[in-house]
């Protein structure tokens, strides 16, 4: 109540911001005539002068009014597009590192040019992030005309570019690209083996278009670079044939809200009987247990043409939020293989993670982050808590006149879709264009089938025919057009009204059900009523909709019964609409908690990732790695000698033998005469021998010693880091069970993750020193002998659940020249001829 009163008296934060921004807008407007008087060639000269001033320390805020006035006039000259006053406020919001919520059609793409030019003056690069390659290319070319006019360079990052093309694009003043490509380039840079392979040059300032889609909807989506594991896929098929023999409720139960499946005691016994095993929970059967649960999820929680489609013999995921296909993305943890077995297509091998990062942690790396969208205010708390971003609602240039009708509520799905079809027919006969929003491919095809029976011509825009998307969206506002779309397919492209449509009410938005998030509903509504155009929207609901069934209050059903609704009868009721909105708020809060928990877990990995990537970059940049090797030697010797140093009693023979064995194993000290004597040499004496071994290696290849050292440091780090990622995945999978022991799973994950990380660092040092101390160079070293390959057969995925998106062809790694009877430099402990040398 106090918040409500304060808002009435003082206005909302956004209203206060707009009021505060008015003097700035007046200042820019006052400069307009000065810029209009300049010739074209004077613009790049002014920009170059500003760049020099900023490099010498001038603050960007001091020149912001001048720069905004300059960009506004450049837009007028080059594109015949002059920034409105509200767009100036939007640009100010973005420059300050906030989110600008601007309605559809308010020109967000043009708004971005203002802070982009201003921040490009720092010379550190500006990234403009879009949701797909089409928009990245379109916006880079479209707005690039302004940037080029001002003497600034523009690059674009899309799928399929070579490393050289990517490096050039990142080297530009302004770089457009998709969230996936920016994230993958960051991961690839941290798998590179030399500075010449790096493409990015830092994370200065990013403006994220459709920021709610990228930072909220895809927040649980890790970007993953993976390589093939060696696990067999045959068990998926065996378990898949078993699942139809299990009975729901008797053998297994389903939690639709949590999207999880669990076996009952009877179910466990039934599975054991079918698989001919004694104990499903025996450690030896853990894989079969896991496959069984994933197969049950595949059969009972994932629907064809809703969650995925089958195309050309492959299971392709459908994006829950956009309805777009996501070729290359794969559910992880065996779920995708379970779906492949269910659909009787080829079951592909699982992949092992080589590098990963969530969008949450990737975008938090930027020194300054801003965002634009039509719908962010409902998630303002999450943006503030997770990213430290304030949301500012920018007023529209013209008043919004769209009419948002109350929800129409019916009893059953059948009645609802019949009413929808009849309403569409009525609107079509009137000539009013209709955009029908559905939540799945299945529902879009159901509406299409009903309209065919009523002989209503229409277009269907879903993941199955996305090739025609641009054309279908372009025509959706024309007279008499009926367009059925899954969720926000077509997002980023305005639907413009055709001739005569304004007079009959504009574009009509018809939602076939409420989404779990109010924001997604608002995005659908936002397709209509752009730039003061008329429009209308209404959602149709049924009591057995998923949202109503799973999250709606039982009071809704009770109310409907008391109202005595008859078959086919629809009602409008504000109480029901309010109850539905409350259900959506509960789901939004639940999903926020999930994303927050995910981030808390990923923060542990992120701290470790930062340490490893920082050390990796140091290995690539340091010209002399001797200090790092010296530190490794000291750390390892401290650890090896710990049982015999600092104790009052003399060490027993077993302890001495153990220390000697470790010195032999890691540093190969047995080849030195000084080490052959009985007893144990001192720590300092052992250290001297290790350094002597390293100096011998330096003498054998003086010109290439640093590259040899770099080679083994990177090789050891990458190999052990990959294993660590797998261990952390396994830890994460089972950590929830700690709750049953009255322990906080998050704290347990942090504690055990720290221990695993310390162990990993020790293994990197040990593996590196093993390789260097056992290496014998028997021939002249060639220049290319210690060049590194990129990870073999890696693939890229962006799905909560990881994927093979693109396989890289393996390149041959040249082995160091070693004798066939020498220990293998890979660190396996075997002879070279029986290890890496077998195929050499």
Automatic annotation (TrEMBL):
Q: Which HAMAP family match?
A: SecA (MF_01382)
Q: Which residues does the annotation say bind ATP? A: 87, 105-109, 494
Look up and give the organism this protein is from.
Alkalidesulfovibrio alkalitolerans DSM 16529
Q: How does it assemble?
A: Monomer and homodimer. Part of the essential Sec protein translocation apparatus which comprises SecA, SecYEG and auxiliary proteins SecDF. Other proteins may also be involved.
Q: Enumerate the subcellular locations listed in this protein's record, separating them with semicolons.
A: Cell membrane; Cytoplasm
Protein name, as recorded: Protein translocase subunit SecA
Q: What does this protein do?
A: Part of the Sec protein translocase complex. Interacts with the SecYEG preprotein conducting channel. Has a central role in coupling the hydrolysis of ATP to the transfer of proteins into and across the cell membrane, serving as an ATP-driven molecular motor driving the stepwise translocation of polypeptide chains across the membrane.
The protein's topology relative to the membrane is: Peripheral membrane protein
State the residue spans of region: Disordered.
Answer: 790-830
């Amino acid at each position: 109540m106090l918040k409500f009163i304060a808002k009435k008296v003082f206005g909302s934060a956004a209203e206060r911001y707009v009021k505060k921004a008015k003097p700035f807008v007046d200042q820019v407007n006052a400069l307009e005539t000065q810029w209009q008087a300049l010739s074209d060639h004077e613009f790049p000269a002014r920009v170059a002068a500003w760049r020099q001033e900023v490099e010498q320390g001038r603050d960007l805020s001091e020149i912001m009014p001048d720069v905004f006035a300059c960009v506004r006039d450049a837009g007028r000259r080059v594109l015949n597009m002059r920034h409105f006053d509200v767009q100036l406020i939007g640009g100010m919001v973005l420059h300050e590192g906030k989110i600008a919520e601007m309605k559809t059609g308010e020109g967000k793409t043009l708004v971005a040019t203002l802070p982009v030019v201003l921040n490009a003056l720092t010379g550190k690069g500006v990234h403009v992030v879009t949701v797909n390659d089409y928009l990245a290319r379109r916006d880079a070319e479209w707005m690039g005309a302004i940037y080029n006019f001002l003497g600034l360079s523009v690059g674009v990052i899309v799928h399929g570019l070579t490393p050289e093309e990517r490096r050039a694009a990142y080297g530009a003043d302004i770089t457009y690209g998709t969230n996936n490509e920016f994230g993958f380039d960051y991961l690839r840079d941290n798998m590179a083996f030399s500075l010449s392979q790096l493409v990015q040059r830092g994370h200065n300032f990013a403006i994220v278009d459709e920021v709610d889609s990228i930072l909220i909807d895809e927040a649980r989506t890790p970007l993953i670079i993976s390589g093939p594991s060696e696990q067999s896929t045959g068990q998926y098929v065996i378990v898949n044939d078993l699942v139809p023999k299990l009975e729901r409720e008797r053998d297994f139960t389903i939690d639709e809200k949590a999207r999880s499946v669990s076996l009952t005691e009877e179910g466990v016994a039934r599975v054991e009987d079918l698989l001919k095993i004694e104990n499903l929970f025996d450690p030896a059967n853990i894989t079969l247990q896991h496959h069984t649960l994933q197969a049950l999820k595949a059969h009972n929680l994932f629907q064809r043409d809703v969650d995925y489609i089958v195309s050309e013999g492959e299971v392709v995921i459908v994006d829950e939020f956009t309805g777009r296909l996501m070729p290359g993305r794969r559910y992880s943890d065996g779920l995708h293989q379970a779906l492949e077995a269910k659909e009787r297509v080829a079951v592909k091998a699982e992949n092992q993670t080589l590098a990963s990062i969530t969008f949450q942690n990737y975008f938090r790396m930027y020194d300054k982050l801003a965002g634009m969208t039509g719908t962010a205010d409902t998630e303002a708390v999450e943006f503030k808590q997770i990213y430290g971003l304030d949301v500012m609602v920018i007023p529209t240039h013209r008043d919004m006149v769209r009419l948002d009708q109350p929800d129409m509520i019916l009893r059953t799905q059948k009645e609802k879709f019949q009413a929808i079809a009849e309403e569409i027919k009525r609107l079509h006969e009137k000539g009013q264009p209709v955009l029908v929003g559905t939540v799945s491919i299945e529902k879009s095809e159901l509406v299409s089938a009903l309209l065919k029976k009523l002989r209503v011509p229409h277009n269907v825009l879903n993941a199955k025919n996305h090739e025609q998307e641009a054309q279908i969206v372009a025509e959706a506002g024309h007279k008499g057009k009926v367009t059925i779309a899954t969720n926000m397919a077509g997002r980023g492209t305005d639907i413009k009204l055709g001739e005569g449509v304004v007079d009959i009410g504009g574009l009509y938005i018809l939602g076939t059900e409420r989404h779990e998030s109010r924001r997604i509903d608002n995005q659908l509504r936002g397709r209509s009523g752009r730039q003061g155009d008329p429009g209308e929207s209404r959602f149709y609901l049924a009591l057995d909709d998923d949202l109503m069934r799973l999250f709606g209050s039982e009071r809704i059903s009770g109310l409907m019964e008391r109202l005595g609704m008859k078959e086919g009868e629809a009602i409008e009721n504000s109480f029901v609409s309010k109850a539905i909105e409350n259900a959506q708020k509960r789901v939004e809060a639940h999903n926020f908690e999930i994303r927050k928990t995910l981030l808390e877990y990923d923060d542990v990995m992120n701290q470790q990732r930062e340490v490893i990537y920082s050390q990796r970059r140091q290995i690539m940049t340091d010209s002399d790695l001797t200090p790092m090797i010296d530190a490794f030697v000291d750390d390892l010797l401290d650890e090896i000698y710990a049982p015999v140093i600092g104790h009052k009693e003399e060490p027993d023979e077993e302890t001495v033998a153990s220390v000697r064995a470790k010195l032999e194993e890691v540093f190969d000290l047995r080849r030195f005469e000084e080490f052959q004597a009985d007893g144990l040499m001192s720590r300092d004496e052992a250290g001297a021998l290790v350094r002597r071994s390293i100096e011998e290696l330096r003498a054998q290849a003086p010109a290439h010693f640093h590259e040899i050292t770099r080679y083994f440091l990177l090789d050891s780090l990458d190999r052990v880091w990959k294993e660590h990622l797998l261990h952390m995945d396994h830890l994460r999978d089972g950590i929830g069970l700690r709750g049953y022991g009255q322990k906080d799973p998050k704290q347990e994950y942090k504690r055990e993750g720290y221990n695993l990380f310390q162990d990993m660092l020790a293994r990197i040092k040990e593996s590196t020193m093993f390789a260097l101390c056992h290496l014998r160079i028997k021939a002249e070293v060639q220049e290319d002998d210690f060049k590194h390959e990129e990870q073999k057969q890696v693939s890229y995925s962006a799905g909560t659940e990881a994927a093979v998106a693109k396989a890289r062809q393996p390149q041959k790694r040249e082995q160091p020249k070693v004798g066939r009877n020498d220990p293998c430099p890979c660190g396996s402990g075997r002879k070279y001829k029986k290890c890496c040398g077998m195929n050499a």
